[in-house]
Amino acid sequence: MIVPVNLVLDGQVKWRPRQLDEFQRGIWAAAVRDFAGCGVQIEGTWKAGGVQRPPGREPVISGLERGVLNVVITNRIPLEWDQGRAWSGVTTRYRGYDLCMVALDHAHGHQAPLLSLNTCTHELLHALMLDILEDRPPGLAGQARELRIDWYATRLWLFHDGAAIRKPAQKYVERLGNRGGLDLK
């Protein structure tokens, strides 16, 4: 199964030396390997874009495409989305686009099973497991959803076991094939 990904590089950011290279060769490459180990091929193409952060309203993101999973690479998640929590990533529907946003100032690779996992693997799983089709539930239900994603990410990383993600991932890819027109639930 092939998941088409549009990697959008935020042109508004002044990157530290080697920061993007370390991301591509480290965090991103490890996430692609995680999924490849269970038969899910991530095919990414790079594109320039931007994340403008007008005060008091949601960000304005350019460079997005329909019919693919957009992964926006920036330095920090907009305040309106993470409420100042310094999240390393977020996955959402944004103006009809499927979007994962990765904040390189906080993103990391696998560090500890179930606790601190690859930011890209984690966010891609939210899309592939169809979490992207619904708002994050509040409270304990939201925490349970995060734990579920971390469980799948741990299994991908340590055991190359993606049996539980293949069926929902296939539904997600089929949905992308519909160009994002109708949400399959």
Distance between the termini: 20 Å
Structural class: alpha/beta
Listing every helix as H and every strand as E from the N terminus to the C terminus, the arrangement reads EHEEEHEEHHH
Strand order, main sheet: write it out: 3-2-1-4-6-5
- Average pLDDT value? 92
Overall geometric form:
globular
Number of helices: 5
Summarize the amount of helix as a percent range: 25-40%
- Strand tally: 6
What are the low-pLDDT stretches, counting only 5+ consecutive residues below 50? 180-185
Summarize the main sheet.
Answer: 6 strands, mixed
Q: How large, in whole angstroms, is the Cα Rg?
A: 15 Å
Strand percentage, roughly?
A: 15-25%
What characteristics describe this protein?
185 residues; globular; alpha/beta; disordered C terminus
Describe this structure in words.
- The protein has 185 residues and is α/β, with parallel strands linked by helices.
- It contains five helices and six strands.
- The protein has helices spanning 19-36, 79-82, 119-128, 139-159, 163-177, and strands at residues 2-10, 41-52, 60-62, 69-74, 89-94, 97-103.
- Strands 3-2-1-4-6-5 form a six-stranded mixed beta sheet.
- Helix 3 (119-128) crosses helix 4 (139-159).
- The protein is globular.
- The model is unreliable at 180-185 (pLDDT under 50).
